Structure formats: C-alpha cells, structure tokens
Amino acid sequence: MKKLLRELRQNKTCLIGVLILLFFGLMAVFAPVLAPYDPEELLGAPYLKPSAQHLLGTNDIGQDIFSEVVYGARVSLAVGLISAAVVTAVGSVIGIVSGYYKGAVDKVFTVLTNLAMTIPSLPLTILLVGFLKTGMLGMVVAICITSWASTARVVRSKVLQIRELPYIKIEKILGAPDILIMFKHILPNITDIVLTRCAMSVGGAMMTESSLSFLGLGSFTRKSWGNILHFAFFRSSILNNQWWWYLPPILCISLCMLGFMLITYHGRTRSQLIQS
Amino acid sequence: MKHLKTILALLLALMMALGCLAGCSGQTGEETTTAATAPAAVQPQETEAEGNHHVELLRVGLTRANDTFNMTTQGGAFGLMNYNSFCAGLFWERDENGDVQPGAIESFAISDDDRTISITIPENLYWHDGVPVTLDDIQFTFEYGRDVLLSSSLANITEIRREGDRTIHITFNEQTSAFAFVNGQTTWAKIYPKHIWENVEKPSEYTGADATIGCGPYRFVSVDQDAQISYYEAVDNYWKGELTVDKVSVKTYASAEALVMALKNDEIDAIYNYSGPIASTLFPTIEGDANLDLGISPDPGNYMLMFGYNEAPSNDLAFRQAVSYAMNYDVFGATLYGDYYYTPTRGVIASPNMGYDGSLGELTYSPEKAREILDAAGYLDVDGDGYREDPQGNAMDVLITPQYNTSRQELLARLAAILADNLAKVGIKTTLDEESMTSREAWSARAENGGTYQLYLGYCTSGIASYIGAPMYIVNYTETGWWGTWQDPEYLDAYHAVKAVNNFDDYKAAMRELQRIISEQLPAISFAFGTSSFPYRTDRYEGWINYPGWGVINNKTWYQTVTK
C-alpha cells in the first residue's frame, strides 16, 4: 500500500486518474446519500433550468437530472467493472494458455483471436444485445463476447517471451505442473499488462454501454449515463438548447474515460520501464 | 521489386482518383424510371408563363423509407402517400370534416337494407399507362382482394352485378354491413388495374415498373434510392378537376428532428406522416419562425392504458377505478402534447371523432380517492414495505407492457415511467415489461396471442380513430384480431351494434352507448386528449387545408395549394 501511494505521489498523471475514478466510485457507492431525490420520482414541473433546488434542472417528465446522473454512475461503472473483470480473466487465460503451450493449441487460439478481432465489435455487440435478454446482464454478456480478443493477444505475446526465460525452463525440467507454472510463475510477471488491459477494458466497456444505451438498446428501467443521454436526445434537448440535460452525462462519461486512460498510460510506461 | 511497388502505388492512386471522379458525377445510384425524365431542379418555381398560380414542385418530407413501390401494399413512402389519393385511385376518401366522399369514383350509394354498395365510375378515368378504367377493373379489384390478397373484409361478398358500363353493385351477406364496410375501408381501398395484376400471383413481391400504376391524380416518375427521394408528376386533364400542383417530390429523412430542420432550411414545403405528428418537444424549434406554421389540429387519435382481463388485479373494477384516480393527467398531457393538451373524458374516444360523448365527464386525478378505493377493496400494505398486497395478502407487482413500436418506444417508455411513479404514490408496485417493449416476438406472445398483460400502453391512430377507433382495441382479440381481452356480453352487443348501423345518426348513438359502458367499467383509459402537429411552410404557397390529425398533405392538397 505504501509502495502504491509512493508511486502515485511520484506520478501525477496516474494520481489524477485515480482521483477522478475515486470521485466517481464514491459517487456510485454513496448515491442514495448524495442524490437529493429519487431519480425515478416525478417532482413537478418539467424542463426546469438549474437552480438551488435542482442543481442540474429537471428533465421532460420532471425528474431531477442531478439525481439521475449520480445514480447513473452505478450502472455505468457496474457494467464497466463487471465486463472488464470477465474480459480480462477470459483474455488472460486464453493468452497464457496459448502462449505457454504454443503449437496446435496456440494456432487454434490465434485463429479464434484473429477472427474475433476482424469482426467490428460495436455492430456485433448491437447484434448480440438484440438477441440476448434485455437489461444489464445481456449487455455485459455481449460486451464480454466481443472484447476479450485484444487482451488475449497482448498477454500471449508477453507469455511467449517469458516462457523462454531460464527459470521457467528449470521449472519445466523439474516437472512442475503446467497449471502451476502458468498461474503461479508467469501470471505474476504479467500483472502490469493484465491490469493495464483491465483499466482499458473498463473504459471500453463503459463507452460501449453508453453507446448502446444511447441507441436505445440498453435498459429502460435502470438509469445510466447513456440512458440519460438517450432520452435527452430523443426528447429534443439539443435542438432546444437544454444543455443542463445532455451535457452532464457526456462530461461524466468523458471524465471517467480520461481517468481510466491516465491509469492505462501509467501502466504502459511502467511495463516499458520494466522491459527496458 | 521497388519499381513494382511504385507502379502498384501509382495504380492505386489512379483508381482512387477515378473513384472520386465517379463519386462527383451526376449519377446518384440506382434509378427506376417509368417516364422520360426526373425533375431537374429541386427548388420550386412558379409557372408564371402560364399566368396561373400552379405549384411547379411541391416538396414533401416524411420519415418512411422510399423503398417500396407497389400499389397493392401500404409499404414505404409510396404506400403512405397513397392514403392521400395520390398515385392510387381510392374508392373512398375523407374530407376535412371526417365525412366519407367518393375518391376516384364518380359516386356511390348504399342500399336501404345495408347489404349492397353501388359504385359508379367516371367516363374519363384512365390508368397512368393510358388504358381506360372500366368495370372490369372494379370487379377485378374486389375479386382479387378477396381471392389473392385475402382481405377478410371482402370474404362476405355474395354477388357482384353490373348495370351498364359504369355502375356496379357489390352485395355482402348479413355478416357485413355495407355502411361499416365503406367507413372501414375509407382511405385504404384502392382500385387495381386488371391488365397489370391479373397474372401476378404474389402481388406484395412484385417489383415490375408497372407496379406503381394507378388511376390517382399523380403518376410515379422516378426514385433515387441513394438520396431517398422519389418524384411524381400530375396526370394531364385529370377527370376530377384542375391539379394545381404540377410535380411532387417525396423525400425521406432519418428522424422527426431532421424533418423539422429540413423544413426550417427550406428543403421541404410540408411534413407528412400517417398518424405520426411531430413531438411537442420540437414545437419550440418551429414557433417564432414567420415562415413556418405548426399545423396544429385536434388529434382524433390518442394514447391509452388498457387493462388485461385475463390477469389480476387488472380484471378487478375497483383496481381499475383506483388506477384512473391515481393517474396525473396533466403530466401525461404535457409529455404527449406540450401545452396543447386537455384532460380526457371517460369514454376513450377523443373529442374530434364522430359520436364523441363529452357528457361522460373528465377523468380526475385524486391520489387520495385512489387510496380510499384500494383500501376498501382490500388492497392493503400488509407487510409494511410501502407497497400494497392483493386482497388475498399476496405480494403484488403489476406489469406495465408498452406496445412494441420502434418509432414510439421513447414516448411509451416515458408514459410507463409516469404511470409507475403515479401508481407507486398510491402504493402499487409496478415493473416495466422491457422484453415486450424491445422484442416483437415477446410482445406478440404477451399481447396478441394470449393477452396475458396487466396494464397495456397503446395508442389509436388517427386513421383508425375515424371509424369505431379506440373501443375496437378493447374487445377480445378473437373478435377483432387485435389484442383486446374484454368479453363482456353487454359491451360485445354494443360493439356489434356499431358495426351493424347503416347511417351516421345510428352510428353516433351506438358509439355513445359504447362510451357509456367504457366509462362505467373502465376497460381502458386515455392518457390525454390533445392536438397533432404537421408543420408546413407558409412563405411560398397558400390554400393549405389542415385535416385534423392528418396535416396539410391530404387528398385536397393537389387541387387547392397554389403559389402566393
């Protein structure tokens, strides 16, 4: 922990990223405390401009937009984190197995990975969301199916290097089980890459969730930033210059993405330093 | 090798340059043409040389794709435009008062026993390819509709008899009222050319160039699929009178927002969309522009909440009454119609429709009254979680099922959110049926094939509203083929009585009876009554007639619109 804090103090970019994510994380966790109103509750007049009573005004049916944005962090971050966890786990396992065994196993996984990477992910995700059950779970599954490939490829290439190192060869000669070598001796050495990919995946999944919700393919019952944006757009807030409705979710999505990007850059730099 | 790379790169660059040139050429993709030329200019001009006030090119904008050009279907922008007696010759059309008038026929009459329709065709009516329209075509239309298009409304024809060269009598059995048939078919029933369709076995799949031929005042000229615009020109010396609009272009836009912006930017002259007025959220964009008119008119159609009679608690009158008091009609009205709404009355039928009964009283918002009714009926919060249980003490989570409709999805979701909030405030827990909302199959399983919904959010289009309308949706689906679940004998009798009338006075009386029963039993509730808006430009043309719930693009546009 001390090491992590020291590292953060030394790297201002990463610190900013962490602070941004901490801000949104706290917002999601303490949404019921921070939000002045129930985001589903109709409070009266629609289209109210920002005021002390409604910090970001009200939407077309009189719901408090600030409360919507605060609660929206929960769905957006949850989809991002759950998807990223699954994507990273699946991608890492495939990458490690593929890189470690090489040969036929590697060829099969490489073909699968290449195939997955050639298909444009957003159209495929839209297609999958159309087929899967409506709601958050369907969206998470669709994102996972379409996003694991790049993690698998990066991890594989790193494992290909590590498996040739002497200590791994000695382990093999000593007859250590493959699973032990892969997950006890190789995995800890690619943690930086895995975590960096995970941070990237969270950002990517959040972006995908927002895109799908904006297109009306998300859940209509759960407030997410993409969902807020969807209704803002379809109820003509942009044409009517109701910036207080469409701008906050855009800013939240952008800031969150920035947070994950800054951490990702730090992770990359660190990996390159270790390599060099 | 190095030279080879250079040569390949140069070839690639050359191909790209040629591609750019091709892209810049006048050719804009696939074009289907049945006449000599498409209009060269997009900007409209007056034909001043002739000294008249003809509109040279009327530019209509809509959101339905320019993709289907087949007289026997209602698909695409072409099908939609034909509701306005455009290329198609309709048997009957409605005027601005909602009254039925002859369309491409000279006259029609209904026999006293309400079994026979007599149709007389004009002498000088021609198909767009120059072939005269004869009684052969009229007889063919009814037989083709019955035998090939399999129209259920034509299944009860018992006799088709000709009288001379211009009059034909169509007789139905006792299961079909001729009056009801004419009213039910107005706006949709087209005359088909026998010489084109008699050998076509699968009419909806036919894509021949002659599939667009009708006997309406305009003939199809061409379509630019890439630009999503189709062109039409007036038929010379059309029998029904002077056509003041010489050419028409119909352009498709991706959304209502794009349509409104196109209107503001003078790309189109008027917006048309069957039963799809622009959203009230777009009004501020139009209001204040001196060259635009919102095209406001009373909306005969309406959004409504239907109760499922196959499920509890929606089959309980006390529950339905409580829901009617729990609904905040001002919020629904403002969401649907902006400032242009008024509180609905208890009979579901909107006020512009024939037979509307305003004496039944307005629906009232009173959460206190709703709570009282629920308490008295035994819907109590037994476990103290803030939501009521049913009279047997079981947990209650009422499903809200919006109609599956991609273009109305957002609005229906908003209505569902308001309803959920209103009901939560009186202690009724609800869940949105998202699956039915986003999947046609799921919706069909829930609504059409079983009627297992509890609260159903639907709407009645302005076209359907013009005859029987909203009450039709309530009747059990085995009667109508829609998604109603109510089988109340008294209501069924009243419904059949409406379908059996043979004049408008009886129709109005029968409709009032239907509304009385609805107001007492509340099988459905309107969210709001209001106005519809089909905006148009006012700077260039005049003579627009705004049909209620329909707009300024209608069957009179072609004869009335002139330059200023």
Highlighted features:
heterodimer, A: 276 residues, mainly alpha, MetI-like fold, B: alpha+beta, six-stranded mixed beta sheet, five-stranded mixed beta sheet, 24 strands, globular
Q: Would you write up a description of this structure?
A:
The complex is a heterodimer of chains A (276) and B (564). Chain A is mainly α. Chain A has a single domain, classed as MetI-like fold (Orthogonal Bundle), CATH 1.10.3720. Chain A has 13 helices and no strands. In chain A, α7 packs across α11. The longest helix of chain A has 37 residues. With 564 residues, chain B is α+β, with helices and mostly antiparallel strands. Helices cover 31% and strands 18% of the residues of chain B. Chain B is built from 19 helices and 24 strands. Chain B has a 6-stranded mixed sheet with strand order 1-9-10-11-2-12. A 5-stranded mixed sheet of chain B has the order 18-17-19-15-20, with helices on both faces. A 4-stranded antiparallel sheet of chain B has the order 5-6-8-7, covered by helices on one side. In chain B, α8 runs antiparallel to α10, α9 runs antiparallel to α11 and α17 packs antiparallel against α18. The longest helix of chain B has 23 residues. Chain B starts with a helix and ends with a strand. The chains are: A mainly alpha (276), B alpha+beta (564). Chains A and B meet through α12 of A and α6, α9, α11 and α12 of B.
